[in-house]
Each structure stands twice: as structure tokens, then as C-alpha cells.
């Protein structure tokens, strides 16, 4: 297939989200680098407490100031990024693995198998995500692992839904028929043809969701049900600093900005990916059409 | 190679294909013609037991296997390896994220063949395709190349029967001629049984020995291609012929 240069009017709206997407991607790379290199970048040791330097405003020694026990805020934000990104990556990996596996099987198989899988999925979807996470976080010991488990439990059904609808449309494609005509057994067809060709919308969704997971994790921490002291985690930092907002704004503002910026970057990248994959081929466009209802219905936690 | 008696395919109580008799021997080419929805593609799928959710009765033997009675494993073994299906939209029939060579190698392995590379090279040669094409993705080849690749796949797997569902209707005229040329030559060289489904009577007249005309799921006329196309007995066949440009 050859693509001719599109007229300006058509290409402008394509270019715009792409620039945003590139911006988001750069931002994400920076955040990830900052988190990974935290031990080298951080100006102070993670848990160094200096009671005499409590609540210092931003200065040359403490760019983002110090918190209520005299810890460097910049240092904790850098290390906090590790926690937040680890939570996001774990939640999405677990959700996508479980959700997409069930989804492609349901979508390809159809019939009673699809009904069983989708009804179970519906049950999980019936619980408000944040509430179910809350309940789980209360029952289990609060902590990073609990946050991951709690969010993943409420997150995977979306991937099942999304990939089931995509897989159902893939299952009617001629190349799937062709594979069946070649005598390829169903599990192999799912693995080799349905799964790889269903992944595009999943990738987009993963990117769009990363911001949401970070926000949810921050919310759980904020409510005291997530990461616990002395773990550095953005939501936790906001929660601990909230009473100081009017007097010592930096304690809460910088971690808040870190959450905002990271969530924003992932969303922008996701939107850009969606746009980019949308124009590349007719196939992707069709896939998106089936994907949209699933993602549009989704309430943002 | 293909032997059909009293084949009836019903979906939800409605008969969509009713074929009292259809035989294709080695080296023979039979064409099923008719308009869209006349049941010709359904008949083809029924020959490989691929009519899911349909009620199929009668007797169907393909390569000596009783398709309606055989267990799924047995059916999977003949699909592709002994009786290959060539579909209408050649590119859409190739999994977009898989290189053609990978696809062919997997197909060979699936049918327990370990002579991958030489078989692939021979098959590509048989359909006059550059083996370099095996390194390409489906969207990087033309429709004619994709269709010849589909035929090469059948050849590599050693198919004795090729079932072709509108194999040329998605291609432009010059490319059609290429594909038909390949099919016609292979049929002679390899003694292939060729069952062709098409609405293109011009194509049919150049390649088929015998013709079945289907309308609304029923066979309205059948016989030697030369006779059916020259002196059609059924008004519907005459209609089809008059529709020719």
C-alpha cells in the first residue's frame, strides 16, 4: 500500500497530537530516568532526617524545600517515582496478562465460553473500582503490594472487555478463516493470529491507563491505605503535606505536580498512539471502532 | 478426490446449499458458478467441515476422508495439507503481523513436515514467485503475489486438492491472468483436483472441465463446461451468460 502525501488540512490534526505524543514520550522517559537514577541524582540520602532544617522553603540547597521532619522533598520525589512507576507497571502487567488472555479466548471462542468469561468480568466491573480497592486495602495489610493487588483486581476486567471485542472482530477476518482452513488448532490460532493482531488497542489502552493507575495509587496512599511511611510515594507525600499547604506550600505542591505531570504524559502519549495507529491502516481503524465503546464507557477513577 | 452426494447445508432450518452430486477427480477442474448468496462458498466450506453452526447432511469424501464423520483431528490433518483453500481476498487472508516465510514454515511444521526450506523454495518456484518475498509482510506484497503465495502454500504442503473461492475477483485483469495461468499449469503438472467457485464465467470458460450452476442454494444445471456455456439449458444460466460483458 502506498500513502500519498496528505493535503495540509488533513495532516494538521494528525501532526498536532503527534507532537503532543512526542512531548509525552519525552516526559515519560525523563520521569523513568529520574526514578531509575534516583540514588545518583538525589542530592541527599533518602531517609536523612534533619530536624533542625524542617520546612525550609525552596533554596539552593533544597530545590524543592524540606518537609515536616526535615527531609529533602526533591530526594523523596525522585525515589517516590520509583514506587509510583513500579505500582503502575505491576498493575498494568497483571491486568493486561489476565485480562487479555481471558479476553482473546472469549472473543475467539464465542458461545458459552464467552458468556461465562464475560459474566465473571461483569461481576468485577459492577464494583466501583476505588471502593473495591479501598475494601481490599482495608482487609489486607496496607502497603505497596496491597495497592498493586487492589488496583489490579479492579483493573483487569477492562482489558478482558477490550480484547474480547477486538478478538471477536479479528476472529471473523479472512486470515483466521485461512488458518482454520490450514488445519491450525484453535489455541494456536489464538496465540499466533488473534492475540498479536489484537494488541494494538491494548497498547494504546495501557498507555492511557498508566496515568490512571498512578492517580489511583496516589489516591489510596492519600487515604492512608497504600504505601506507608517511610516509603517515599507521591500520594503519601501529598497526604502528609496537606495540612501544610497554606503555610508551607512546597511540601505538597511538588509531589502533586509530579503526579499530575506523569499522569498527563501517559495520557498524551496514549492519545497520540491511538491517533497514530488509527491512520496507519484500515485494519487499525476497524479495531478502534470496536474498541471505542469499551474505553468510552470507562469512568475515570 | 472429491465426492459429494446429497449434500445439504442448513442454517437455522433454511437450506443454503443443496448439492445432489459433485465429483472432482485428480487433474480435473470443476467450477461452481452463481451469484452471491447462491450457496457456492458454503458448499466449498462444507467440503472441509468448516461450516460452523450449520446442520450438514449427506456424504462428503475428500481425499478419501469422510468429512462429515471424521473426528476434528483427522479433519485438521487434511485441511491445508491435502485439500487447500485459496480465498478471495488474498492479502486479508494473510495474518498481517507475520512474515510470509514464517507463515509457510509454521504451516509446514504444523503438518509434521521438517523439510521446510527446500519445500518452500520449490513451491515458490512453482508459482513463479521470488523467494525474497518470503521475508516480506503481507502488506508489502501485491494482491497477485499474495494469491500466488496462497497457492504456493498449498503446493508446499503437498495438497492434492485446491478449493479456490473467487481466487481472482479481487485482482485486476492482468494479475488475474497470471494467477489463472499458475493454477492451470499446476493442475496439469501436479495432477491437482481443482474446485473453483466463481461468478466470473469468462474465467470459468478458460479453465473448467465441468460446471455446476447454483441459484438460491440449489444446483440448477450441471455438465461439461463447453456444453453448459454454449447451450445453457436453464434460464438462469442464460441470464448469467448474458450478463457477460
Automatic annotation (TrEMBL), chain A:
<feature type="transmembrane region" description="Helical">
    <location>
        <begin position="249"/>
        <end position="270"/>
    </location>
</feature>
<dbReference type="InterPro" id="IPR025966">
    <property type="entry name" value="OppC_N"/>
</dbReference>
<keyword id="KW-0472">Membrane</keyword>
<keyword id="KW-0813">Transport</keyword>
<dbReference type="InterPro" id="IPR050366">
    <property type="entry name" value="BP-dependent_transpt_permease"/>
</dbReference>
<dbReference type="InterPro" id="IPR035906">
    <property type="entry name" value="MetI-like_sf"/>
</dbReference>
<feature type="transmembrane region" description="Helical">
    <location>
        <begin position="123"/>
        <end position="156"/>
    </location>
</feature>
<protein>
    <submittedName>
        <fullName>ABC transporter permease</fullName>
    </submittedName>
</protein>
<keyword id="KW-1003">Cell membrane</keyword>
<dbReference type="InterPro" id="IPR000515">
    <property type="entry name" value="MetI-like"/>
</dbReference>
<feature type="transmembrane region" description="Helical">
    <location>
        <begin position="85"/>
        <end position="111"/>
    </location>
</feature>
<dbReference type="Pfam" id="PF00528">
    <property type="entry name" value="BPD_transp_1"/>
</dbReference>
<keyword id="KW-1133">Transmembrane helix</keyword>
<comment type="similarity">
    <text>Belongs to the binding-protein-dependent transport system permease family.</text>
</comment>
<keyword id="KW-0812">Transmembrane</keyword>
<dbReference type="Pfam" id="PF12911">
    <property type="entry name" value="OppC_N"/>
</dbReference>
<feature type="region of interest" description="Disordered">
    <location>
        <begin position="282"/>
        <end position="301"/>
    </location>
</feature>
<dbReference type="GO" id="GO:0055085">
    <property type="term" value="P:transmembrane transport"/>
</dbReference>
<dbReference type="GO" id="GO:0005886">
    <property type="term" value="C:plasma membrane"/>
</dbReference>
<feature type="domain" description="ABC transmembrane type-1">
    <location>
        <begin position="81"/>
        <end position="270"/>
    </location>
</feature>
<feature type="compositionally biased region" description="Basic and acidic residues">
    <location>
        <begin position="285"/>
        <end position="301"/>
    </location>
</feature>
<feature type="transmembrane region" description="Helical">
    <location>
        <begin position="20"/>
        <end position="42"/>
    </location>
</feature>
TrEMBL record, chain B:
<dbReference type="InterPro" id="IPR027417">
    <property type="entry name" value="P-loop_NTPase"/>
</dbReference>
<dbReference type="InterPro" id="IPR050388">
    <property type="entry name" value="ABC_Ni/Peptide_Import"/>
</dbReference>
<dbReference type="GO" id="GO:0016887">
    <property type="term" value="F:ATP hydrolysis activity"/>
</dbReference>
<protein>
    <submittedName>
        <fullName>ABC transporter ATP-binding protein</fullName>
    </submittedName>
</protein>
<dbReference type="InterPro" id="IPR003593">
    <property type="entry name" value="AAA+_ATPase"/>
</dbReference>
<keyword id="KW-1003">Cell membrane</keyword>
<dbReference type="Pfam" id="PF00005">
    <property type="entry name" value="ABC_tran"/>
</dbReference>
<dbReference type="InterPro" id="IPR003439">
    <property type="entry name" value="ABC_transporter-like_ATP-bd"/>
</dbReference>
<keyword id="KW-0472">Membrane</keyword>
<feature type="domain" description="ABC transporter">
    <location>
        <begin position="2"/>
        <end position="241"/>
    </location>
</feature>
<dbReference type="InterPro" id="IPR017871">
    <property type="entry name" value="ABC_transporter-like_CS"/>
</dbReference>
<keyword id="KW-0813">Transport</keyword>
<keyword id="KW-0067">ATP-binding</keyword>
<comment type="similarity">
    <text>Belongs to the ABC transporter superfamily.</text>
</comment>
<keyword id="KW-0547">Nucleotide-binding</keyword>
<dbReference type="GO" id="GO:0005886">
    <property type="term" value="C:plasma membrane"/>
</dbReference>
<dbReference type="GO" id="GO:0005524">
    <property type="term" value="F:ATP binding"/>
</dbReference>
Amino acid at each position: 500500500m502506498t500513502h500519498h502525501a496528505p493535503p495540509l488540512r488533513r495532516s494538521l490534526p494528525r501532526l498536532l497530537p503527534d507532537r503532543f505524543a512526542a512531548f509525552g514520550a519525552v516526559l515519560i522517559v525523563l520521569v523513568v530516568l529520574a526514578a531509575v537514577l534516583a540514588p545518583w541524582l538525589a542530592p541527599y540520602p533518602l531517609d536523612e532526617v534533619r530536624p533542625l532544617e524542617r520546612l525550609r522553603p525552596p533554596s539552593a540547597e533544597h530545590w524543592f524545600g524540606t518537609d515536616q521532619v526535615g527531609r529533602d522533598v526533591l530526594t523523596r520525589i525522585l525515589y517516590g517515582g520509583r514506587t509510583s512507576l513500579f505500582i503502575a507497571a505491576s498493575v498494568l502487567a497483571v491486568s493486561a496478562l489476565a485480562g487479555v488472555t481471558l479476553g482473546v479466548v472469549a472473543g475467539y471462542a464465542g458461545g458459552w465460553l464467552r458468556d461465562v468469561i464475560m459474566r465473571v468480568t461483569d461481576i468485577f466491573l459492577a464494583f466501583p473500582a476505588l471502593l473495591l480497592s479501598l475494601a481490599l486495602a482495608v482487609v489486607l495489610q496496607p502497603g505497596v503490594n496491597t495497592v498493586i493487588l487492589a488496583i489490579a483486581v479492579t483493573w483487569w476486567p477492562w482489558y478482558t472487555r477490550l480484547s474480547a471485542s477486538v478478538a471477536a472482530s479479528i476472529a471473523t477476518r479472512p486470515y483466521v478463516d485461512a488458518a482454520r482452513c490450514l488445519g491450525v488448532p484453535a489455541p494456536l490460532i489464538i496465540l499466533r493470529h488473534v492475540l498479536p493482531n489484537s494488541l494494538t488497542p491494548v497498547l494504546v489502552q495501557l498507555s492511557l491507563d498508566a496515568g490512571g493507575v498512578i492517580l489511583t495509587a496516589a489516591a489510596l496512599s492519600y487515604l492512608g491505605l497504600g504505601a506507608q511511611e517511610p516509603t517515599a510515594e507521591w500520594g503519601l507525600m501529598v497526604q502528609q503535606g496537606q495540612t501544610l499547604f497554606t503555610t508551607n506550600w512546597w511540601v505538597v505542591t511538588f509531589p502533586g505536580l509530579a503526579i499530575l505531570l506523569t499522569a498527563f504524559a501517559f495520557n498524551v502519549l496514549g492519545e497520540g498512539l491511538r491517533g497514530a495507529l488509527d491512520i496507519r491502516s484500515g485494519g487499525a481503524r476497524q479495531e478502534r471502532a470496536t474498541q471505542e465503546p469499551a474505553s468510552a464507557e470507562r469512568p475515570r477513577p | 478426490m472429491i465426492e459429494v452426494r446429497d449434500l445439504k447445508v442448513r442454517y437455522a432450518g433454511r437450506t443454503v446449499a443443496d448439492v445432489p452430486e459433485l465429483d472432482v477427480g485428480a487433474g480435473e477442474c470443476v467450477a461452481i458458478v452463481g451469484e452471491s448468496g447462491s450457496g457456492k462458498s458454503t458448499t466449498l466450506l462444507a467440503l472441509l467441515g468448516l461450516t460452523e453452526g450449520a446442520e450438514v447432511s449427506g456424504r462428503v469424501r475428500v481425499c478419501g476422508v469422510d468429512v462429515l464423520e471424521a473426528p476434528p483431528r483427522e479433519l485438521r490433518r487434511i485441511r491445508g495439507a491435502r485439500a487447500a483453500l485459496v480465498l478471495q481476498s488474498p492479502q486479508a487472508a494473510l495474518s498481517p503481523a507475520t512474515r510470509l516465510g514464517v507463515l509457510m514454515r509454521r504451516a509446514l511444521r504444523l503438518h509434521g513436515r521438517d523439510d521446510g526450506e527446500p519445500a518452500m523454495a520449490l513451491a515458490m518456484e512453482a508459482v513463479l514467485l521470488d523467494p525474497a518475498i518470503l521475508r516480506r509482510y503481507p502488506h508489502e506484497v501485491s494482491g497477485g503475489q499474495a494469491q500466488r503465495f496462497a497457492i504456493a502454500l498449498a503446493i508446499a504442503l503437498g495438497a492434492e486438492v485446491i478449493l479456490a473461492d473467487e481466487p481472482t475477483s479481487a485482482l485486476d485483469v492482468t494479475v488475474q491472468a497470471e494467477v489463472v495461468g499458475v493454477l492451470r499449469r499446476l493442475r496439469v503438472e501436479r495432477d491437482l483436483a481443482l474446485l473453483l467457485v466463481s461468478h466470473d464465467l469468462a474465467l470459468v470458460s478458460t479453465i473448467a472441465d465441468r460446471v455446476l450452476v447454483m441459484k438460491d442454494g440449489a444446483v440448477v444445471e450441471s455438465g461439461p463446461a463447453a456444453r453448459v456455456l454454449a447451450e445453457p439449458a436453464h434460464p438462469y444460466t442464460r441470464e448469467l451468460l448474458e450478463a457477460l460483458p
